[in-house]
Specification:
The chain has 401 residues and is α/β, with parallel strands linked by helices. The protein folds into two domains: 6-39 and 291-400, Aspartate Aminotransferase, domain 1 (Alpha-Beta Complex); 79-286, Type I PLP-dependent aspartate aminotransferase-like (Major domain) (Aspartate Aminotransferase, domain 2, 3-Layer(aba) Sandwich). Helix content is 45%, strand content 14%. The protein has helices at 6-21, 29-35, 51-66, 71-76, 82-93, 106-117, 131-134, 157-167, 187-196, 241-244, 258-265, 275-284, 287-311, 337-348, 373-400; strands at 43-44, 100-103, 121-126, 141-146, 171-175, 202-206, 234-239, 252-255, 317-319, 326-331, 350-351, 353-354, 365-369. The strands form three sheets. A seven-stranded mixed beta sheet has the order 2-8-7-6-5-3-4, sandwiched between helices. A four-stranded antiparallel beta sheet has the order 9-10-13-12, covered by helices on one side. It has a two-stranded parallel ribbon with strand order 1-11. Helix 7 (131-134) links the parallel strand 3 (121-126) and strand 4. Keywords: Aminotransferase, Transferase.
């Protein structure tokens, strides 16, 4: 049991209230700044983004927008319509623009797809990102496929295919790598799932963390968005927040059959982007930016792998395998996740996500994001100190008894 002072307990209660108000998501950094000013967040290891990519974006933004006065154009002018931004991405992604739908963040695309195209029954693997089951409309049956703890919450492809065939849904969802555990299903296995389950109307593949996954020693990017052309029941969703570190910009896209894109554009999504997002998408497709971005992507992957390896050396925790920029950690030896997260925040200024609200997780779990090398080093030392503190208190309690 982690010990708190009376003043710290008041902060713990405030943290609990903020988390309850945020529902199945985490309170934002700005929410904490506003409602919990007594806590100084030094490392945001809750929200999932590549800090080196953020640095790169800021460098370009300063040089091309702020320092040139072009910021006025972004503020004063309307951004392009959805289809125009799709045309910007088309050549870069090697996908027909008619198959690309631009979203105000991936969350808007998830909602649009689930609301408009899931009619009868949806299978969702758990634990996973909560919005997929929260956005299901009344009258649609939700069936959960439980990822096994004994298999480190990785997808058993054979078992999954059999499960879907037995339940016959019109929609299935695969987040790859999965959130919150970072489990990755190889491209060949996902393709097999698509081929075996051709009867499913909508196969949603969420690749929001795909830039952190790899299948080669060179860390080459693997994406299945090109499969939409030959498999019109496939829908690939992509958040730009995580890999490019621009959550505040609100940018994402989906790749799906043209009929779906057309339907969405006719139902309120024609002009759903903003000038900053359009600037990012135009920057994203430029060769000079893409080359520099890939270097910081690989640098971040390598440092994340080192971070995960160091975490595995710590006692009293289990670190689950991950191909994302975060890890799922199970706290052992009676350590409570809510207390552990609160202690990290109050004493060390490290913001981490507790997973108590994740359907499909039983036990004491936290999700920890990788940050810069210096921040990761600080996180390691702080977690080690928290664990040692818990061990000391446990020993004292046992001695007293």
């Amino acid at each position: 049991m982690i010990k708190f002072t009376s003043d710290e307990l008041k902060v713990v209660k405030k943290i609990e209230v903020l988390k309850n108000e945020a529902g199945s998501h985490s309170p934002s950094f700005f929410t904490f700044k506003q409602k919990l000013p007594e806590v100084d967040i030094k490392v945001d290891a809750c929200f999932l983004s590549n800090p080196y990519a953020t640095d790169l974006f800021i460098e370009y933004f300063n040089k091309e927008i702020l320092h040139t006065g072009n910021i006025r154009d972004l503020l004063e002018s309307y951004p392009s319509q959805n289809g125009v931004i799709a045309e910007i991405l088309a050549d870069f992604l090697k996908i027909d623009s008619g198959n690309i739908f631009i979203g105000n963040g991936a969350i808007e695309i998830i909602q649009a797809v689930i609301h408009n195209f899931t009619k009868r029954k949806i299978i969702i693997t758990i634990p996973t990102f909560s919005s997929y089951y929260e956005y299901v409309k009344d009258g649609v049956e939700v069936v959960y496929y439980n990822l096994s703890k004994n298999n480190n919450y990785n997808l058993d492809v054979e078992e999954y295919i059999a499960f879907v065939k037995q339940n016959k849904p019109d929609t299935i969802v695969l987040i790859n790598p999965n959130n919150p555990n970072g489990g990755y299903t190889k491209a060949a296995d996902v393709q097999r799932i698509i081929e075996e389950l051709s009867f499913v109307d909508n196969i949603i593949i969420d690749e929001s963390f795909i830039h952190f996954a790899y299948e080669s020693e060179s860390y080459q990017l693997v994406s299945l968005s090109h499969l939409v052309k030959e498999h019109p029941n496939v829908i690939v969703l992509k958040s730009m927040s995580k890999d490019f570190g621009i959550a505040g910009v609100r940018a994402g896209y989906g790749v799906m059959r043209k009929e779906y894109v057309d339907l969405l554009l006719k139902n309120g999504y024609l002009w759903n982007s903003n000038g900053f997002a359009e600037y990012f998408f135009r920057l994203y497709t430029r060769a000079d930016f893409a080359l520099r971005y890939d270097k910081v992507r690989v640098k971040y992957i390598v440092e994340t792998l080192e971070f995960i390896q160091e975490l595995r050396q710590l006692p009293n925790i289990k670190v689950y395998p991950s191909m994302a920029n975060f890890v799922l950690i199970e706290l052992l030896e009676g350590i409570k996740s809510t207390e552990f997260v609160a202690k990290l925040l109050i004493s060390y200024g490290i913001y981490v996500r507790t997973c108590d609200d994740k359907i499909g997780l039983k036990g004491q779990f936290i999700r920890l994001a990788s940050r810069s090398k210096d921040e990761n080093d600080y996180v390691i030392q702080s977690i080690k100190a928290c664990i040692q503190m818990n061990d000391v208190l446990k020993l004292v309690n046992e001695t007293v008894v």
